[in-house]
Specification:
The complex is a heterodimer of chains A (112) and B (120). Chain A has 112 residues and is an all-beta fold. Chain A has no helices and nine strands. In chain A, strands 1, 3, 4, 7, 8 and 9 form a six-stranded mixed beta sheet that branches. The relative contact order of chain A is 0.33. Chain B has 120 residues and is an all-beta fold. Chain B is 0% helix and 50% strand. Chain B is built from no helices and eleven strands. In chain B, the strands form two sheets. In chain B, strands 2, 4, 5, 6, 9, 10 and 11 form a seven-stranded mixed beta sheet that branches. Classes of the chains: A mainly beta (112), B mainly beta (120).
C-alpha cells in the first residue's frame, strides 16, 4: 500500500488531454514539493515535473503539474502514442522521526 | 554529460549481502544529494535511501538497519551496502541524482538499474 494514492490507470485518445491525480496527507504533499516521473517500458524513470510545477529543460509544455492542499495533479495535453507509459508522483514524507521519500503506486496511461 | 552506471547486482541467497556501486561522471557526487530507488518485478517505484551533500542519510523503514548508503568522493561513486537480504528485496535498483538546491524527491538523472535477486 503506497503512501501516495494514484489511480491505477487512465486512458484517452490521441490529441486529447488527461490528468493524473496523486493524493497524500499533510505530512507529505501538504508540506512538501511534488515531482512526477514518466517510465517507459523497460527504461529508467524520467523526471517530468519537479517542485510541483517546474519542468526540466527538454520537457515539452504539454506536461504540467499543480498542487492544492494534500493533492497534486499531472496534466498532459495533446496526447501522443509515445506518451503511453507509467507515471509516478513522489515527495518527501516527514511523519516519522526521520523523514523518508515516498512514491505513488503509479498510473498506467493508455493512449487509445 | 551526466552519467550514472550501477553495478554489483546479482543472485544472492536469503540472509546474504551485496554491495551496489553507482559510478558517476559529468558532475560531483558530493555536491548533490543521491538516492537509491528500487522496483520489484512488475511493481512500482520504492524509495530506498538518500545521502545529502552534508553526509546525512535517511532510509525507508523496510531497509533500515540492513542497508547502508555511502559515497567515495575520491572515486565519485555512490554505494549501497545491503545485508540480511530477504526475498522481498528482489528488485531493480536505480541510483539517481538530486540536483543542488532542489527539493526531495527531485531526481533528474537515473542510472540504467542493476537487478538484485534474492533466492535460494
Amino acid at each position: 500500500q503506497s503512501v501516495l494514492t494514484q489511480p491505477p490507470s487512465v486512458s484517452a485518445a490521441p490529441g486529447q488531454k488527461v490528468t493524473i491525480s496523486c493524493s497524500g496527507s499533510s505530512s507529505n504533499i501538504g508540506n512538501n514539493y511534488v515531482s512526477w516521473y514518466q517510465q517507459l517500458p523497460g527504461t529508467a524513470p524520467k523526471l517530468l515535473i519537479y517542485e510541483n510545477n517546474k519542468r526540466p529543460s527538454g520537457i515539452p509544455d504539454r506536461f504540467s503539474g499543480s498542487k492544492s492542499g494534500t493533492s497534486a495533479t499531472l496534466g498532459i495535453t495533446g496526447l501522443q502514442t509515445g506518451d503511453e507509459a507509467d507515471y509516478y508522483c513522489g515527495t518527501w514524507d516527514s511523519s516519522l522521526s526521520a523523514g523518508r521519500g515516498v512514491f505513488g503506486g503509479g498510473t498506467k496511461l493508455t493512449v487509445l | 554529460e551526466v552519467q550514472l552506471v550501477e553495478s554489483g547486482g546479482g543472485l544472492v541467497q536469503p540472509g546474504g549481502s551485496l554491495r551496489l556501486s553507482c559510478a558517476a561522471s559529468g558532475f560531483t557526487v558530493s555536491s548533490n544529494y543521491m538516492s537509491w530507488v528500487r522496483q520489484a518485478p512488475g511493481k512500482g517505484l520504492e524509495w530506498v535511501s538518500v545521502i545529502y551533500s552534508g553526509g546525512s542519510t535517511y532510509y525507508a523503514d523496510s531497509v533500515k538497519g540492513r542497508f547502508t548508503i555511502s559515497r567515495d568522493n575520491s572515486k565519485n561513486t555512490l554505494y549501497l551496502q545491503m545485508n540480511s537480504l530477504r526475498a522481498e528485496d528482489t528488485a531493480v535498483y536505480y541510483c539517481a541524482r538530486g540536483p543542488p538546491n532542489t527539493a526531495m524527491v527531485t531526481l533528474d538523472y537515473w542510472g540504467q538499474g542493476t537487478l538484485v535477486t534474492v533466492s535460494s
